[in-house]
Amino acid sequence: MKATSFVRLFLIAALAVVSHATRYEPNWASLDSRPLPSWYDESKIGIFLHWGVFSVPSYLNEWFWWDWKGAKNPAAVEFMLANYKPDFTYGDFAPDFKAEFYEPSRWADIINASGAKYVVMVTKHHEGFTNWPSKYSWNWNAMDVGPNRDLVGELASAIRSQTNVHFGVYHSLFEWFNPLYMEDAKNNYTTQKFVAAKTMPELYELVNTYKPDVVWSDGDWMVDDFYWNATQFLAWLYNDSPVKDTVVTNDRWGKNIRCKHGGFWDCDDKYLPGQLMKHKWENCMSLDKYSWGFRRDAQLSDIYSMDELIALLVKTVSLGGNLLVNVGPTSYGEITPIYEERLRQMGQWLGVNGNAIYGTRPWTYQNDTTNPDVWYTMKKEDSGTVVYAILLKWLHSNTLKLGAPAVTSKTSVTLLGYSGAPFMFVREGVQGMTIMVPAISFTDMPCQWGWVFKLENLANQ
Fold first, then answer.
1. Average pLDDT for residues 438-450, to the nearest whole number?
2. Contact (CB, 8 A) for 47 and 114
3. CB-based contact 346:313 (threshold 8 Å)
4. At 79, is the secondary structure helix, strand, or coil?
5. What's the pTM?
6. What are phi and psi of 80, to 5 degrees?
């Protein structure tokens, strides 16, 4: 046997052993042992897209059907009585979900310009309508009703052809008015007819068809994980699926699973723990403070300002999390100008300050010990370990006092995006420093929000 052939056989055998050794069993102890693919932690920022039949009424929130039919919200009931016939059903909204202005290439351009590194598209929300032509959702999907298009497939193709952004899918485990789900609930979840016929087949179909790098589960909170049978799916996802090496998942696989198991933890909507977590986590939030879906009645004050958005991004990353920023497109397929502006402005900010965000990890201190408006990240770069001090409110004087850094004779301080010389500073005891910030003209100011001071060669880096 030739030496090259022997080496080839040896490598194949070695890979087989490694593959066998890293197979995951359908239980949480085994599934949780899988390392989180590094791309996710390095990305830091994703875009969430809540889009579906609920985008048609576009009033109150994406829970409109529940608020209306369940009489949970008098405003929803009044809205329906004033605008629709008494026998109107939720299904009657679907023909008006036309997506006639949907241009996936334009969405991809906006997402790419935002600086986000992954996108999570709602493929099915709690109403059960699938935004792809699922064979498990006959006559209740975007190919059979409304748009008559594969909305998921079109965006996946646009994202992959135009950007380096990772494509992901959101999928609701349960459905409000699916008869099989209601039967299982009536039987106290001792039967799994809905899971076997709808939920799990859809998930396998989604992964095999669109090969997402994120599987973002939701709609889990009514019952423990035993009902959803998710561990079997996750074992397949991690072992044998076409995305087994790149895919990441969240923690919404049962009401007893959140913030305990899963690839990364969402815990609750708009989750910001206020301290370092031992597990990778994500803060999923919406630019509209009161709804994930598009609202026609939203006011400007309901939308996060850039100051608020950058502050939330900085705090989330400083504490070791990722920020998933949601926008709700219209039923006719537009990301409205206010959302587009926010996303493009975020991208402009990251164009200047991205080194302090992407690929960073938490420093010894997350928030400064004396200045509550300063948050820290750190990164190993060619020059060594660098600490970034991110100032959320600009100075009232020409000095910036920091309590956390311990300086050395080699410490240098620069402002990201500013072409001037390194800033002078004064050591304040064993730990602490005062940075002398020169007067910077408006035209030379690198950004409008969140100014980043790069600290090199600290004693406590």
1. 94
2. yes
3. yes
4. helix
5. 0.94
6. -70, -40
